[in-house]
Amino acid sequence: MTNSSNPAQAARAKALAWILQGGKRLLIGGQWIEAASGKTFEVINPATEERLCHVAEADSADVDAAVIAARKAFEAPSWATLSPHARTRALLRIADKIEQHIDELAAIESLDNGMPLWFAQGAVTATVDIFRYYAGWCSKVLGTTIPSDGSTLIYTLREPLGVCGQIIPWNVPILMASIKFANALCCGNTVILKPAELACLTSIRLAELIQETDLPPGVINVLPGFGATAGAALAQHLGVDKIAFTGSTAIGKQIVRDATSNLKKVTLELGGKAPNVVFADADIEKAVQSAVKTFCGNSGQVCSAGTRLFVQESIHDQVSERVAQLAATWKAGDPFAADTKLGPLISAKQRERVWSYIGAGQEGGASLRLGGNAWSGAGYFVEPTVFDNVRNGMRIAQEEIFGPVLSIIPFKDEDDAVLQGNDTSYGLSAAVWTRDVSRAHKVVRALKAGRLWINTFGESDPAMAFGGYKQSGWGREFGQESIEAYTQTKSIMVRM
Ligand code: NAI
Ligand code: MG
């Protein structure tokens, strides 16, 4: 098993060596330091339930120190007056660094979060493109010239916001940290990142790699710690100019309340309950394969996952049978084994939460097509679970489960699909499958969500904005909108 000629095992060994070397601290002002309190917390491998290491635990005192460091870096000539081209080169150097460490970062992510290695490799590879995408933006954050009579000149500048607090979840940490860093840095901000207490190791390793590229000290700071202490202190802090948060809708609302302290800017990427709508005229096999991938991928711990599969009545039974058949091939097990498709959930608590929804589905009268068996052995695994003949009003169809649990819901026609698809408090993503071009465009216009797909699901591109309608969030990441989310406009009049 530990044969190092096996690339997965070699990557695992390298990642473990880094994890076990100790020294997992806070990054403040270019220095790796212990928490002011001296406290640490445990990092658990969810596939084995074993402890991997301890990490320094930041709280409000460390947030204070990080804010001072980030402010100093924001105002330092080495960052504030850096030419946009130099900033491009800095982000490209980070992309190159990540590219040289894909297997190691992926293996760290896999050990810490439990995701299969192949999934982690995909996520790390995507971060390379994200840094390169934002590298290109540095020299394109444009102001405007405003029409006026010849006696004045009016123009605008787009300026960075300042010190940005960034709070990320545990589901795909390397991707979350990279989106947040790259977006903020390309606009000239400085950053304090608080990774999730349940998976913080790739944020630490990424920051180490970034430090090796000679970014000025204090431009990025990393504070592993808990939400109620470090996270809340960041959201409330008078010296923080913006909070970018990704996580649950409940905590997103708390962030908004905390941010009123100084009316800092807030962007939120929150939960989802995406409708994935399959019409009888679709390429059904393609739709089914994609539907299984979206609800099982990362064990369903994805905010944009297609967790409500709306299927036209005439094909409901056929589709649900095929979905169950394919989902059953998603083998759970060791994230480093070549044939593993499904990793564990992040924690025992998350497994309890998912189990409570599986119970609610059965009590609510949905029919269980697949799953429902407890996992015997170590690791917080839940096997793919498929309910069909679900009614959209049931709890399993309304609440974000964040596990590999699918609700298949029958619908009659276009109007019914749209009505039911939109009957949710969320609005992050949605998809429609049909061979009818007009119908496809009509339905995506009618669905209330921030990112939509036609005849595919879940594909991403950093140039394509991502964010929520309704209670799925505020603002957008990726694309031009994300540049606006990390800058502010200054307008200037010159009397000639
Ligand atoms: P969470 O929203 O509590 O955690 C996300 C991040 O917020 C973590 O870094 C956490 O430390 C931080 N946080 C927690 N409380 C905070 C506070 N008061 N102030 C500032 N930061 C705070 O999510 P949790 O509890 O880990 O997961 C529970 C459920 O939330 C999941 O089952 C899922 O439904 C949803 N969730 C959704 C995510 C998404 O991307 N849409 C990501 C993670 C969780
Ligand atoms: Mg962990």
UniProtKB/TrEMBL annotation:
It holds the Pfam family Aldedh. One of its GO terms (molecular function) is oxidoreductase activity, acting on the aldehyde or oxo group of donors, NAD or NADP as acceptor. Residues 32-492 form the Aldehyde dehydrogenase domain. The active site is at 269. It comes from the Bacteria. Gene3D superfamilies: Aldehyde Dehydrogenase, Chain A, domain 1, Aldehyde Dehydrogenase, Chain A, domain 2. Keywords: Oxidoreductase. InterPro entries: Ald_DH/histidinol_DH, Ald_DH_C, Ald_DH_CS_GLU, Ald_DH_N, Aldehyde_DH_dom. Belongs to the aldehyde dehydrogenase family. This is Aldehyde dehydrogenase family protein.
